[in-house]
Specification:
The protein has three helices and two strands. This is Methyltransferase. InterPro entries: SAM-dependent_MTases_sf.
Length: about 60
């Protein structure tokens, strides 16, 4: 399985969504579970500062909005 990902500023993502006629309905930055700090302290510390995964819910923009 191939995973593709892009690192770019959040503003760039939002500009692309808007240009495609979409609006942001919800944004969730997943955070590591507290127990991860015990088993993988370096990764936990990094993921609490730098999101490893972001989920967005987008909606089609209605004309006139």
């Amino acid at each position: 399985m191939t995973h593709r990902y892009w690192h770019q500023p959040l503003q760039a993502w939002l500009d692309e969504f808007t240009a495609a006629g979409l609006t942001l309905d919800r944004l969730v930055e997943h955070q590591p579970v507290p127990s991860m700090a015990h088993h993988h302290p370096a990764e936990h510390e990094k993921l609490t500062r730098q999101s490893g995964f972001m989920a967005v819910r987008l909606r089609k923009r209605h004309p006139g909005i």
